[in-house]
Structures are given as structure tokens and as C-alpha cells.
Design a protein that fits this description.
By secondary structure, this protein is α+β, with helices and mostly antiparallel strands. The chain has helices spanning about 1-20, 25-30, 35-45, 85-100, 105-120, 140-150, 155, and strands at about 50-55, 75-80, 125-135, 160-165, 170, 175-180, 185-190, 195, 195-200, 205-210, 225-230, 235, 240. About 30% of the residues lie in helices and about 25% in strands.
Length: about 240
């Protein structure tokens, strides 16, 4: 009898586990409930955000530099599909956490909600916006890289920066803008349609981004390739990008 009871309890436990809601937190929680860690996940390592880290390639040499505290020089590009709603939701939630939104008086919450809604309701129906930030652990390389990206233009990049789908259809950059001064960010902006149709549909397997970057101190090979899985990019029942 005792064994039967134990098996029955085990069966109930397994059933409860199987019946538990599955999926990522962004599918189960309102964005105003996201934690700082969860926001970081969306913004840095999610279906809409990836990182590309470049290190110096040498043959029989030491690439360490005094300005990097003895570390190997490296550059990290953080790539976000900014026009994807989850990225903007995480951006807003991070701002809320920084300003202690959950403990604000109702009037201040309403004011912040109004500003957030204007940001979240921005119209990206005709554009795909890719936001990229970069970080270098070497001051000289950082300044050189900043000079490069801050001097680029759409005309310079128009034939070498594009997004594509799994059918090989490409859309080239239509606009480029870069942060100036101490900002280490830039944006690639693309049309959302190819031949009058959305670039992505549920049958596509991936969204690919390709762009050239300068090779500084032997870091990388000069061409970035990033792939986003379409089946993971579903948000609120649609492909978010």
C-alpha cells in the first residue's frame, strides 16, 4: 500500500512538472515585472541580441599590451535588433529599475508611463533598425575604432552592409547614423520589405546580418556575420525584428 501511495505521489509530481507553463520569461511575464538580470538577458543574449568578440590572431608572437593590463587585446560588438519590441521593452524596464519605478508615487508613474509609451509605440513598420555598440580594452584601439565608425556614411556602406533571409534575398542599408564624441554606438537602418513583401515570414529559418569592420591590431578578419533564428524571434504571436 505504501509503495502504491509513493508511486501515486510521484505520478502527481511528474504531471505537475509537465503541466507547468513553458517558455521564456518574456512570454510569461509583463515587462514591468522583468528583473535587471532578465533585461540584461534580452539586451545582450537573446533571439534579438548577440555579441561578437574579436581577438588578435598572431603567429609566434605576444599580442599583450601594457594598456590592457596584460590581457590580450579584444573588441566586442553588441548587436541588437532595436526595432524588435522586446529590445525596446527591456530598455524601458531598465530605465524603470534605475529610477525605482515600482516605488514611485502614482503621478510620477503616470508621467514615466507616458514617456515610455511614446518610445514603445514608435513606428517601425517600414524599417529594420540594428543598434550596435562596441567596446575595446585598449585605449589607442578604442579611439581608432571610434574614428572609423563616426566617420562612416551610408554612401560608403551601401554596397557592403545588408540583412538577408534564408532564401538568400538581401536588403542593403538605407540609412546609417553613429553616436559622436564618447558614444560608442551606431545604427544600420534597412527597409523592411523586399520586392514589396516582408523580408521574413514563418517559413524562413534565419535572419542574417553582414557588415565590414576595420581590422585593428590584428583583431578579426574584417567581416562580421551574425545569424538570428526566426523560430526563436516570435513575440506576441508574430516575428519580432
Amino acid at each position: 500500500m505504501k509503495k502504491i501511495f509513493c508511486f501515486a505521489v510521484l505520478a502527481l509530481l511528474l504531471a505537475s512538472v509537465l503541466a507547468a507553463p513553458k517558455g521564456e520569461f518574456w512570454e510569461k511575464k509583463d515587462y514591468k515585472e522583468w528583473t535587471q538580470k532578465e533585461c540584461g538577458k534580452v539586451l545582450e543574449d537573446s533571439p534579438w541580441a548577440k555579441a561578437l568578440t574579436l581577438t588578435a590572431v598572431t603567429v609566434g608572437g605576444d599580442t599583450r599590451d601594457n594598456s590592457t593590463d596584460g590581457q590580450q587585446p579584444n573588441t566586442t560588438y553588441r548587436i541588437q535588433l532595436f526595432s524588435a519590441k522586446p529590445i525596446r521593452l527591456a530598455t524601458v524596464r531598465q530605465a524603470q529599475i534605475a529610477q525605482k519605478y515600482d516605488s514611485l508615487p502614482a503621478e510620477q508613474k503616470q508621467e514615466m508611463d507616458k514617456r515610455s509609451e511614446a518610445f514603445l509605440s514608435a513606428d517601425f513598420s517600414d524599417a529594420v533598425v540594428v543598434n550596435i555598440s562596441y567596446l575595446v580594452n585598449n585605449r589607442a584601439s578604442d579611439l581608432e575604432l571610434a574614428r572609423h565608425w563616426q566617420s562612416q556614411t551610408r554612401d560608403v556602406l551601401k554596397n557592403s552592409v545588408y540583412i538577408s533571409n534564408s532564401k538568400g534575398e538581401k536588403i542593403y542599408i538605407s540609412r546609417y547614423q553613429a553616436g559622436q564624441g564618447a558614444e560608442r554606438t551606431f545604427q544600420f537602418i534597412f527597409p523592411r520589405q523586399v520586392d514589396g513583401k516582408p523580408l521574413l515570414n514563418p517559413q524562413d529559418k534565419n535572419l542574417k546580418l553582414e557588415f565590414p569592420y576595420p581590422v585593428i591590431r590584428g583583431m578579426g578578419d574584417g567581416r562580421a556575420f551574425m545569424e538570428f533564428k526566426v523560430d526563436k524571434m516570435i513575440f506576441e504571436g508574430d516575428i519580432a525584428y
